[in-house]
Write a structure and sequence with these properties.
The protein is mainly α and about 200 residues long. The chain has 10 helices and 2 strands; from the N terminus they run αββααααααααα. The protein has helices at about 10-15, 35-45, 50-55, 60-85, 90-110, 120-125, 145-165, 170, 175-180, 180-200; strands spanning about 25-30, 30-35. About 20% of the residues are buried.
Length: about 200
């Protein structure tokens, strides 16, 4: 039924008077959010990593900020990015804030003003160290392809394991599996990424 993840307190009171409840149930399975939109959105707003990142941002030394972001926060953000669909409520905002925090830390370390930090400089940050970068890719930009790659790598195993045990109909009618929301969504993200590459380099078509 309706979930209304963005409902304010006043709106919630109106919903309750009309007999509608804001669903907030959910859980984490191996770090992946399972549940209502409101649960997912609340997680990205108040999760422990977001709290720690807030504390990191208050540190006086930019070098320490960058190191903590690079070796503590960044790997976990990558993990979440691969596990959750970009449409997950709150995810893109969380990634955007994370990426911006890393850029601010880098600006402070190299003593560069925000206005002097050109777009190609941000791109260079994503390059590996041997190419002059910092290995810090923009997670918001890669959100779609990260999810699609994760689905592509795991869908075969999911089909084989669950198709034998719980969803035997998949084996007689594979279209049932293909119609799971996660599959067409991943295909959409993958196609978008491929089109982007072909736009940059038509020879890749």
């Amino acid at each position: 039924g309706p979930q209304f993840p963005d409902a304010s307190l006043d709106e919630e009171r109106v919903l309750m008077l009309k007999g509608l409840e804001v669903a907030r149930n959910g859980a984490k399975l191996l770090g992946c959010l399972m549940g209502t939109d409101a649960f997912k959105q609340a997680f990205f707003q108040k999760n422990k990593l977001a709290e720690i990142q807030g504390r990191i941002g208050k540190l006086d030394t930019a070098q320490i900020q960058l190191l903590l972001l690079r070796f503590f926060a960044y790997p976990r953000v990558i993990y979440w990015n691969r596990l959750m669909d970009p449409r997950t409520p709150g995810k893109q905002d969380f990634l955007r804030q994370h990426d911006a925090q890393i850029v601010r830390a880098v600006q402070s370390v190299v003593h560069v003003q925000p206005g002097e930090f050109l777009p190609h400089t941000t791109t260079q940050l994503s390059l590996p160290a041997n190419l002059g970068g910092a290995g810090l890719s923009n997670q918001e930009r890669f959100s779609g392809i990260a999810d699609a790659s994760s689905v592509a790598m795991s869908s075969g195993a999911i089909f084989q394991r669950l198709g034998h045990r719980r969803f035997v109909g998949w084996r007689t009618d594979p279209q049932q599996f293909r119609e799971l929301a996660v599959i067409p969504n991943a295909c959409e993200y993958w196609s978008s990424a491929v089109n982007g590459v072909c736009t940059l380099d038509p020879s890749k078509q």
